[in-house]
Design goal:
Helices cover 20% and strands 39% of the residues. With 277 residues, the protein is α+β, with helices and mostly antiparallel strands. It has a 17-stranded mixed β-sheet that branches. It is globular.
């Protein structure tokens, strides 16, 4: 590892409903991110700790975002991190709307008022090969016990509708399906319960991360799955362990709205970076 490239490297800590992130702004300086550094920073005892890490670079729009998981793998999308970074960039530039690019494609964000930030996460991927699944099948009813729904939001999702989401031992249930052979790239796993008209209680196990208090892309996938099943309309409230998101599946994509928090800014120390050599 080139220590000189990392010395004095600033970072930000943000969260959306307790779904927390380390963010590097690489628009004006090089951030030589790699899997080893992502894993070290993701350690909540020996590093900083995060659910995802994001790197902001210059892009075709206002900025380009790249996401990493705690296991050092790349994440194709991260809705809550996108909202947090969008709020940071809008405040920085005095804007109320942004065009962002990601591996997921073009995403658009706006100030939703009342301290809330909305991001259009794009159209869901509903065909088996786009999610992707290992073979052709009906994505609305997978041949898995419990008949979950498969969706793509730039990353794979497997949604189980259950009577009581809080009763599922997700720390055991999640890993079993994250690595299911139907999902060649692994999958995010959600358990969701319908608790009222257009109102869902959801918990999530994130691929490459584990249990998280919230997940934006998972919330979008659950909303899409519920609407496809006819369990709700296309605009829903989703209550997660960390708080509430509003999801609206419109003709132009799946909009997600909720609060964000920029917790702190800091700098990586030479001592920490030396420990990675």
């Amino acid at each position: 590892m080139d220590m000189r490239a990392h010395i004095g490297l600033p970072f930000m800590k943000m969260h959306g409903l307790g779904n927390d992130f380390v963010v590097f702004d690489a628009r004006t300086r090089d951030v030589p991110m790699n899997a080893a550094l992502a894993r070290a920073l993701g350690d909540r005892r020996r590093g900083i700790g995060f659910d995802q890490l994001a790197v902001i670079t210059k892009g075709a729009g206002d900025a380009h975002l790249t996401f990493w998981n705690t296991d050092g793998s790349i994440a194709g999308a991260c809705g809550n991190a996108t909202r947090c970074i969008a709020r940071y960039l809008m405040d920085e530039g005095g804007k109320d709307a942004l065009h962002l690019t990601t591996a997921r494609g073009d995403l658009y964000a706006r100030d939703a008022g009342g301290g809330l930030t909305a991001v259009n996460m794009g159209a869901p991927q509903l065909d088996w090969q786009d999610i992707p699944l290992a073979e052709a099948m009906d994505t609305l009813q997978l041949p898995i016990e419990g008949g979950p729904v498969a969706s793509g939001m730039g990353n794979p999702h497997c949604t189980f509708f259950v009577p009581d989401a809080e009763a599922v031992p997700l720390d055991q249930f999640g890993p079993r399906y994250e690595h299911h052979p139907l999902f060649p790239q692994r999958t995010n796993v959600q358990v969701a319960s319908i608790i009222g008209p257009d109102h869902i209680r959801m918990r999530v196990w994130e691929r490459g991360v584990g249990l998280t208090l919230a997940s934006g892309s998972s919330s979008c996938a659950v909303a899409v799955a519920a609407a496809r099943r006819g369990l709700t309309g296309r605009a829903v409230r989703i209550d997660l362990d960390g708080g509430t998101l509003m999801i609206d599946w419109r003709d132009d994509g799946v909009w997600m709205t909720g609060p964000t928090m920029h917790v702190a800014s800091g700098t990586l120390t030479p001592q920490f970076l030396e420990s990675l050599r």
